[in-house]
Amino acid sequence: xxxxxxxxxxxxSRNCGVETWRRWGxxxxxxxSPGGPDRVSSTTQQLISEHLALVxxxxxxxxxxxxxxxxxxxxxxxxxxxxxxxxxxxxxxKGVPFRHYAISxxxxxxxxxxxxxxxxxxxxxxxxxxxxxxxxxxxAALGEIPSTNAVxxxxxxxxxxxxxxxxxxxxxxxxxxxxxxxxxxxxxxxTLESTMTDPEDQVLENELHQYLRAAVSALPERLRxxxxxxxxxxxxMADIARDLNVTESRVSQLRAEAMVLIRDGINSHLxxxxxxxxxxxGGSVDRKRSAYFAAIAEHRLHAMKQESQNSxxxxxxxxxxxxxxxxx
Length: 328
Description:
Layout: H1 14-27, H2 37-50, H3 52-63, H4 72-89, H5 98-117, H6 122-142, H7 148-155, H8 159-171, H9 199-217, H10 221-232, H11 237-244, H12 248-270, H13 284-311
Helix pairs in contact: 1-2, 2-4, 3-4, 3-5, 4-5, 6-7, 6-8, 9-12, 9-13, 10-12, 11-12, 12-13
């Protein structure tokens, strides 16, 4: 198991390398050899500390050909693992300098780590490279960007197979939200759902808010006071009950009654089919409720007139509220 804390850069000293190898020694047991464990450990530690810079060199070389979202620390950690493996399996009798041998093992460990963490399979990547070669060859021959049918014919596959390949390559691509934008390329922000409100939804929401204000303004004074203090001013129910000289349960009943009135009052103008039918049509409760619905319309009309006057910069003739009152 590889540790993230083992990632090293060019500036790591020899003592840092020895300490790192000691940590690796605790994770990866020493391989016995005829020379004895102490001698193997000492030789391996020396190779590690003297060639730590190779890890940074290979990481820098490899990262230049990789997308920006690939973490360099992960590459260094994989490269260090390759250096450890190289120091364990190195045989001086074969006549190959350790530096050359270690570079190949470090590069191989990094590539293995990239393949393990790649979202696309190796076959998809190979097919993707074949597609790029096909596009380059056709562009050189035709002098223009080839069509999908031309690319599919060149690769010897169907258009459907080519589109499936493109879809697999797209799923295997990772876009960085922090990467600097590149002109002409797709940015990660372009694939995210917009947080801006749709203009139509904004109009409907504004209309709903305007009717809500009208519905609260048209409430009988006692119910309006409960709704305003509880929801708009954040007063505790106990304070409202004390000021109205009633119990908290009565305040809760008044709040529920007001919420039902507000809901039906707004629906009477925006969604009449959702209005709760009256228990006794034509009765006292039904007449009061109808008067409340009419009061909402009056308040809404008054607000619209004020908005029209404000937008046209015409002095307002009056600021009085409509003389429509509902008796609770």
